[in-house]
Write a structure and sequence with these properties.
Strands 1-2 form a two-stranded antiparallel sheet. Helix 6 runs antiparallel to helix 8. About 70% of the residues lie in helices and about 0% in strands. The protein is globular, with a radius of gyration of 19 Å. The chain is built from eleven helices and two strands. A hairpin with a 2-residue loop joins strand 1 and strand 2.
C-alpha cells in the first residue's frame, strides 16, 4: 500500500514529491548530526530544530501534493514553487544558524538576525495563507467522486492547520517558546517540549498536523461523516486545551518528583 501511495503521489505532483523526498533526506542528515555534533543551543543539539522543520516540511509537501490534485483549474506550479522557495528559505537559514551555534527563531540580537527572523515569519505566513486559500477552494468546489467524509476531513484539517500555524505568533510576540520560565529547560526527547513550564509548541505541533491526521483517520478508519466531524472537533479542542495550558505556564508532561530532586542536585 505504501509503495502504491508513493507511486501515485509522484504521478500527481512530481515536483512536490521530490521536494518532500529531499526534505526527508535532509531531515535524516540533521538527525545524524544531532547525534554526532557537539554544537548546542539551549542545552540540546543545535541540529534538532532543523531536523524538526525539515521533517515537518516533508509531511506538508506530500500532504498538499496529494490534496491539491483534487482541485479543478488550480495553478499547481505557482503553489509548488511558493512552497519550495518559502519553506526552503526557512530550512536553509535554520540550518546555517544551527551550524554556527546560533538561534534562528527569536534572535533579534543584530539588525541582520532581526531581519532574517522577520523574513522567516513572513515566509511561514505566506505559505499558511496559500494553504488557507486551498482550503477555501475545497469549500467552494464539489467533489462527487470523493467520499464526503474524506472531503470534510481535508477541509477541517486545513482549518485547524491554519489556525494553529498562526498560533506561532504567540511565541513570536513573546520571543520565547517557554511560558513561566526560561527557554532551554529539560524537555521530552526529540521534541524537547518543556517538562516544567508552559510550551505553546505542543499546540502548534498538534494543530498543524491535523492536515495529515484527520484525512488519514477519516479515509482509512472512520469512513463516516459524523464520526469525522466529531473527531475533528475533539482534535481541535485538544490543540486548544494544550494552548490554554501552555499560556497558564503549565507543562503537558510534568517532571516526576524524583526527576525534580535529581535536577536540584
Amino acid at each position: 500500500m505504501l509503495l502504491g501511495f508513493i507511486n501515485e503521489l509522484r504521478e500527481r505532483n512530481e515536483t512536490l514529491y521530490y521536494y518532500g523526498l529531499l526534505c526527508l533526506g535532509i531531515s535524516i542528515l540533521f538527525l545524524v548530526l544531532a547525534k554526532v555534533s557537539t554544537i548546542q543551543v539551549y542545552n540540546i543539539s543545535a541540529w534538532i530544530k532543523p531536523f524538526k522543520f525539515a521533517f515537518s516540511t516533508f509531511l506538508f509537501a506530500w500532504a498538499m501534493a496529494w490534496y491539491c490534485f483534487y482541485l479543478p483549474n488550480f495553478n499547481i506550479k505557482l503553489f509548488n514553487w511558493s512552497v519550495i522557495i518559502l519553506l526552503g528559505f526557512e530550512i536553509v537559514y535554520i540550518a546555517i544558524q544551527a551550524g554556527r551555534g546560533q538561534l534562528s527563531h527569536y534572535n533579534i540580537s543584530t539588525p541582520t538576525y532581526s531581519a532574517l527572523y522577520s523574513m522567516m515569519a513572513i515566509a511561514a505566513s505566506l505559505v499558511t495563507l496559500y494553504t488557507a486559500y486551498v482550503g477555501y477552494l475545497f469549500f467552494v468546489n464539489e467533489f462527487p467522486n470523493l467520499p464526503s467524509y474524506y472531503v470534510w476531513a481535508i477541509r477541517l484539517g486545513i482549518i485547524i492547520f491554519v489556525v494553529f500555524s498562526f498560533e506561532g505568533f504567540v511565541m513570536g510576540s513573546k520571543l520565547t517558546h517557554t511560558i513561566g520560565g526560561p527557554d532551554g529547560g529539560e524537555g521530552i526527547p526529540l521534541l524537547n517540549w518543556s517538562k516544567r513550564f508552559g510550551d505553546p509548541r505542543v499546540a502548534h505541533f498538534i494543530g498543524m498536523h491535523a492536515l495529515q491526521v484527520l484525512p488519514l483517520l477519516s479515509f482509512y478508519l472512520l469512513k463516516n461523516l459524523k464520526a469525522t466531524i466529531v473527531l475533528s472537533v475533539l482534535y481541535g479542542l485538544l490543540a486548544l486545551f494544550t494552548l490554554l495550558q501552555a499560556l497558564k505556564g503549565k507543562p503537558l508532561f510534568k517532571m516526576s518528583e524524583q526527576q525534580k530532586e535529581e535536577r536540584q542536585l
